[in-house]
Amino acid sequence: MAEYRVIPEGTVTSPKGFLAAGIYAGLKVFGEEKRDLGLLFSEELCDAAALFTSNEIKGAHVVLGQQRIQGKKLQAVVVNSGSANTCVGEQGLVDATEMTELAAKKLGVLAGHVIAASTGVIGVELPMALIRQGVEKMELSKEGGHELARAIMTTDTHPKELAIALEIEGKEVTIGGIAKGSGMIHPNMATLLCFLTTDASIEADFLHEALKEAVDASLNMVTVDSDTSPNDTVVIMANGRAGNERLKKGALGADIFQEALAELCIHLAEEIARDGEGASKLIKVGVEGAESLADARAAALTVAGSALVKTAVYGNDPNWGRIIAALGRSGARVDESQITLYINEFCAMDKGLPVSFYKEAAVQAMNRPEIYIRVLLHLGDASATAWSCDLSQEYVTINSAYTT
Amino acid sequence: MAEYRVIPEGTVTSPKGFLAAGIYAGLKVFGEEKRDLGLLFSEELCDAAALFTSNEIKGAHVVLGQQRIQGKKLQAVVVNSGSANTCVGEQGLVDATEMTELAAKKLGVLAGHVIAASTGVIGVELPMALIRQGVEKMELSKEGGHELARAIMTTDTHPKELAIALEIEGKEVTIGGIAKGSGMIHPNMATLLCFLTTDASIEADFLHEALKEAVDASLNMVTVDSDTSPNDTVVIMANGRAGNERLKKGALGADIFQEALAELCIHLAEEIARDGEGASKLIKVGVEGAESLADARAAALTVAGSALVKTAVYGNDPNWGRIIAALGRSGARVDESQITLYINEFCAMDKGLPVSFYKEAAVQAMNRPEIYIRVLLHLGDASATAWSCDLSQEYVTINSAYTT
What we know:
The structure is a homodimer. The first copy, chain A, is 30% helix and 27% strand. Chain A is an alpha+beta fold.
């Protein structure tokens, strides 16, 4: 575990030199707390890295972002919720490009150093007139991270934000992040949008590597509905304001930064799962003793994503056969006679044999806001954790009337 | 299309020489129409083939059945619902074997020619005392197929049965089948249990090939919840009573039989999807113009299985972006600019561009018991169909309190 402290009320603008804004620009139905357009800005040009969706269908901002990140330098992100700017033909790329140009002009930076991001309904063109007006009137501030965290929400019930401070070779370094999730959430990437900032000085290639490793163990291990979005985007920007000696692979402090970044991403991943559409419980699946990391991850994610496991958790139903059935179809090597299974503190199966239990006690053990499903495969040394949420009637209600 | 006629009230005992029974033996909570133990019997020893689950965790009857089918000869099936006889340690195989011995003794056949099958809750031992009594008191009859179809039901709301007659080289041949589905339904196999019979004379290797081909295009293209059961079993028995010249690969009439068998399996597949847990609508996904059959099948199944597509269908929500997003993550090659998409008769996307539509008309087009999602990829000649059902609050209700 990396040593770090959580910054009270921390957010994506907690690291030095980052400002942000989030406003209501009319892209969604109005609500007191609603925001739908946002800006994230670094006073210095940043080393940057980004990861995008693995979906063959890609939002226009993903296509543009994949080009822009080639330069490994970014200074701003402009983002909207309400429309995904996806499946709208060539207009999509025209509009995403204009978004970055509008932001660049306002901020006095190069458009090539701006990334755009969109989330919302697919197949609807961006209302560019509203976005032009909106970018114009946004006011950046040091507290703007909180508003930006709201501006990226769709069916999320609350913003997800965190900032942590740690010491690297005598210098205090801060890492901040915000994310949104809720629906169409499955790796890779497991989040629609996640923006990370740090005032550490970091070489871009190491930054990319550290981001990939952190995301693989966190956001890519979240599943709400097994549906991978065409818009998923994670961006990290490092502006060097902390004054530390530049971090690169193998440098002193590189491991500390890597671990702290992973911890921050795990926190955001857990928050996304906890706030999955219609969720009443967080499900955490830990698989230990797998033959390989790939096996451990596949097993954990398959259990976490099973509709039958998710409904059983919702109903406090200790129907653990569903967990074993999901393990069996995960593609991971499993040996029934070696499996030990816990649901919270209660053991359901021990080395392949069902454990007699008092059903009411098991039901009670499941009637909690967090359910920890722990699987011991006893085949090797690899382990992994996946995050999900229960599947409730409310999930169906939310998703059966999303656009109508 | 093969030429055949549907037999009124046809079932698995419609082919000559097959008898069956289904009774209530006390394995499930009592209900007027409830059956939980059944027998299927052929007066002659049959050429036989079977396919089993791809889940790494296998029910005891699957392990036993995989051994028994090596001999390519069967004369009876004994089956129970209520307990899956899965994940109960070594007792599972002991009990499955005893079930076949009880049936063999009653019927005066070899236990090696009997297959057992179980479906229900995982992790609970079979109540063998009830099964011993039950096998004893079953009475076989020509109409018993209808009772047997009930005996394999779990959360199914009605039995699935069909028999068809066709002519092969001047001889009338009958094929009958029953199946159960409802929950934990996803290839491979897409059905928990399916029993097929025919009075045609067929060489066992060709029978296996014909079964595999039929199941790949039908039962393996059904998904209710993306959860593959450890117990899935399809068995076909051919007793030769029709007196046709023995069918083998390339023989006259082999194609006709193959096609008719596939049609029968498609009917059962569609019935399983229509009766998925909590379903109010059948979803049929046709993918055309894919580069390969594997691509077409992956694309169709991924769309059919998407929780977001299924909830949108439930709510008559023409949120077609979810269909495109599912296509994009299916693993099939897709080119956004080439995709044309219909939901029933209404075109949502034409060669990559959204088609403006009157939303109320689209909502109305979706307010029907069958939704046909038709995707034209325009990349090749391969096509495939998948079947699913909508995802309703009722699904959650059913599955959140299954064992409690």
